[in-house]
Amino acid sequence: MTDTVDQTEGRPSRRRGRRPGGTDTRTALLDAARQVFSEQGYDGATVRAIATRAGVDAAMVNHWFGSKEGLFVKAVLQLPFDPADLFTRLAEGPADALGERIVRTFVTTWDATGGGHFTALVRSVSSHEQAAHLLNDFFVKEVFTRIANQAAPDQAHFRGSLVGSQIVGLGMARYVVRFEPLASADVEQVVAAVAPNVQRYLTGNLG
Amino acid sequence: MTDTVDQTEGRPSRRRGRRPGGTDTRTALLDAARQVFSEQGYDGATVRAIATRAGVDAAMVNHWFGSKEGLFVKAVLQLPFDPADLFTRLAEGPADALGERIVRTFVTTWDATGGGHFTALVRSVSSHEQAAHLLNDFFVKEVFTRIANQAAPDQAHFRGSLVGSQIVGLGMARYVVRFEPLASADVEQVVAAVAPNVQRYLTGNLG
Predict the structure, then answer these.
(1) Percent of chain B having pLDDT more than 70?
(2) Which of A139, A205, B11, B183 has the most crowded CB, counting CB atoms within 10 A?
(3) Searching chain B, which residue's CA lies closest to the CA of residue A172?
(4) What's the topology of domain B13-77?
(5) Does the ipTM surpass 0.95?
(6) Chain A residues within 8 A of B158 when measuring between CB atoms
(7) pLDDT category, A13, cuts 50, 70, 90?
(8) Is there a contact between B66 and B84 (Cβ–Cβ < 8 Å)?
(9) Residues in B touching A170 (Cβ below 8 Å)
(10) What architecture is the A83-203 domain classified under in CATH?
């Protein structure tokens, strides 16, 4: 773990030493969160337990990460976008463009890190049972199933898990196993090819 | 490694001792194949190199596995079906039922091992660069892209890699990360939901 403040978040920077609210606190919370989420799963892990493990006040979680969800995304999923915005960003706009927005958002986000975040995530999922639960809790239940529920409430859970299968598979194919030419295709080509399939999972007839 | 003959293959069974063509030879070839495929990749590995590593005659590869491809499937992918038949089995019949046949074949096969084969495969893919190449060479190039090329020759390679993304994602969702209710859905429900998407990748308009 480095102790550097992430400048892209615009946090007050360059605090030094072990002081409440400083970057050491942020780092300690990230370390503690990885441990507690791995041990308890997303639903079982409490903000209090994580703060206690880090030796800081629970209010520091909100100060640095906004919420338990925000801490989870930074510590475990290591996603660069704000978690509070993800569902809203994806779910807004016309229902028949949901697939397109989901695929474009994920591919653009993952491409920006050269697939490194997704690869790290999959490696932790493949080797840690808990990481798989977390992925399920966060992406499928909190994002895809909520979007499905808004767009086509019948079978929303099944729809959400189907979207999860394609998004995880896209990440695997593009970044981990690198199926060409999909791995090197430009974002718009991927969106045009994959979005209608994600859209069908969300709002189409599933048979 | 066990030394037991797989009775389902109908091989002459219960040979004992280190004799040419015996089950020790089969085991030695499987061990050598895993090593050589990992070191050289599928295309780089030769039947001769594997046989030499195993200390047996190259003819034993054909005797026990039919071909390099057959050895690869048994040793690395650990699939229970005959590789020579896979493309044929999937590609036969009406072109508009390809998606259905692919999804049903993979889900039925993987379900039969409780997902164990797929999970082992993904773990090796996530941790070994070579295993990813092998998966690409075998499934995407030799099966999905060939099927796509027969059904809709335009963009066959892109289509093959898209099918790969959904099939790998389905395996991840059903067996590794276990997105419910997809993970517990019965085979026919999965086929009805996923097959039209695979079909679109093979023969539909990709935008």
Answers:
(1) 77
(2) A139
(3) B165
(4) Arc Repressor Mutant, subunit A (1.10.10)
(5) no
(6) 181-182, 185, 189, 193
(7) very low
(8) yes
(9) 165, 169
(10) Orthogonal Bundle (1.10)
User: From A185, which residue of chain B is nearest by alpha-carbon distance?
Assistant: B158
Residues of chain A with CATH 1.10.357.10: 83-203
> Which of the residue ranges A39-48, A79-88, B1-10 would you say has the lowest mean pLDDT?
B1-10
Of A132, A135, A182, the CB nearest to B165: A182
**Cβ contact, residue pair B179, A185, below 8 Å:** no
Mean pLDDT is lowest, of A191-195, B1-5, B131-135, for B1-5
Of A126, A169, A185, the CB nearest to B166: A169
How crowded is residue B87: how many other Cβ atoms within 10 Å of its Cβ? 16
Enter the DSSP assignment of A4.
Answer: -
Q: Which residues of A touch B185 (CB under 8 A)?
A: 158
Question: If you average pLDDT over each of B73-77, B81-85, B159-163, which comes out highest?
Answer: B159-163
Inter-chain CB proximity A136 and B201 less than 8 Å: no
Provide the CB-side half-sphere exposure for A157 (13 A, CA): 10
Q: Rounded to whole angstroms, how far apart are CA atoms A54 and A135?
A: 23
Q: How far is CA A79 from CA A83, A105, A131, B200, in A?
A: 8, 12, 14, 30
SS3 B33: helix
CA distance A45 to chain B (A): 19
Residue B123: the pLDDT is: 65
A111 to chain B, minimum CA–CA distance in Å?
16
Residue pLDDT, tens place only, A98-120: 999 999 988 888 888 777 767 76
- Helix/strand/coil (H, E, C) string of A97-139? HHHHHHHHHHHHHHHHCCCHHHHHHHHHHHHCHHHHHHHHHHH
User: Using a CB-CB distance cutoff of 8 angstroms, which residues of chain B are in contact with residue A132?
Assistant: 176-178
Residue ranges, CATH 1.10.10.60, chain A: 7-77
| CATH architecture assignment, domain A7-77 | Orthogonal Bundle (1.10)
Contact between chains at A170 and B174 (C-beta distance less than 8 A): no
* CA torsion, ordered B28, B33, B39, B45, to nearest 10 deg: 130
pLDDT at B17: 42
Size of interface A-B (CB pairs under 8 A): 150
- Output phi, psi for B91, to 5 deg: -85, -15
The pTM of this model reads 0.71
Query: Which of B162, B167, B189 has the CB atom closest to A182's CB atom?
Result: B162
